[in-house]
What does this fold into?
Amino acid sequence: MLRKRQRTLRSACSYHGVGIHTGQESTVTFRPAPPDSGIVFVRADLPSAPTIPASISHVVLRADTPRRTTLARDGVQISTVEHVLAAIVGLGLDNVIVELDSDEPAEPTDGSCKPFVDILSEAGVVEQDAKLQHLEIVEPVSHHEGGVSLFAAPYDGFRISFTIDYSNPTIGTQYASFDITEETFLKEIASARTFALQQDVEGLKSQGLIRGGSLENAIVVGDDGIVNKSRLRFPDEFVRHKILDLLGDLALLGMPIQGHVYASKSGHASNVRFVERLRRSIQEGKVRYSETSSWDIDSVQQILPHRYPFLLVDRILELDSRRVVGVKNFTADEWFFVGHFPNHPIVPGVLIIEAMGQVGGFLLLSRVPDRDQKLVYFMGIDNVRFRKPVRPGDTVRFELELLRLRRGTCKMQGAAYVRGDLVAEGELWSQVVDRERRDS
It folds into this structure.
């Protein structure tokens, strides 16, 4: 049965080790996070501790980062995130802060994600008072490239089926299929270890990769069998690890899947492109949100024209014909804190009103056809009051109600709350205009 509520950690926990590609010592700390914040990586070793959401929008595919999933934002990079993500979503966690002191998480000593799972389980999981959204597969969605294929079909639950086919006789052709629940993840997937062909190892080393790799944290397979004489944990451990990797890459959707995902010969790059394909399928109607009143950051960007650093909406929580609710988490590394009362940072009031207006704009643009050809302009702001300051780390909840709509011109009553306290309110006048006419 699909979960109905979001979950996070009960307490923080840490894991220390060595990054498999960089070979550098690293500590990864998992922390609880508020509802609707998702999985967010934090580079604690850099000034201002920049953040990178675990989102397909921040994935980079480059020749210098093969065989791993890499996130980047504003010149900051974090690579090899797939095992961390698999451990988090495999345990049914939705909102987690992942704090790092390097650009690559420590790799578990056995090459699986089980050590991550153990410390997360010990920290504990708590249910949050927030609805959980699923990405429901309504019609088949497929992606093919070369001999690789991925396919998603409707299914009452979440299932992954995977086929691998290697010429190496020790691996050969393997197939596995599991309903992905917390129980099956712990029992069947989490302890499956990463593997590499011996013939590929020297090539990877010549590229400056797997500096932290060893015969202890990977299964190395040669022409005559397993080089490190490691006993397999499952007869089909190789394909189970591929399921683990795919599970981590699918986490970049930002929500669980309701559907059956089939994969054949897929790796991280093709997994990522399949996630991108699933995102595009939302507009085609092949995929939908099970809670249609909630949209994450990638979905928000499909409606609103704004982009970083001026996109001030993280998620839309509720939406109907006359009301919209959205949230924005003002993190400590926001660009304006550098100069706006740097010794006593607060969010500028004009940006609170701008964020309120963007949430209202989402309601307006969601109602019109051809919204990619439309813009929402402010016309006026009345009766604005700022009640309390908004500080770094605050999550602001914006609630707007449509009071009047006539010929594309509307009036909305808006209010902003932090932890239930009113921090700002006002009446916003806006108009939907044609992009080409006003931009020409």
Observations:
- The chain has two domains: 5-289, 297-439.
- Residues 208-213 have pLDDT under 50 and may be disordered.
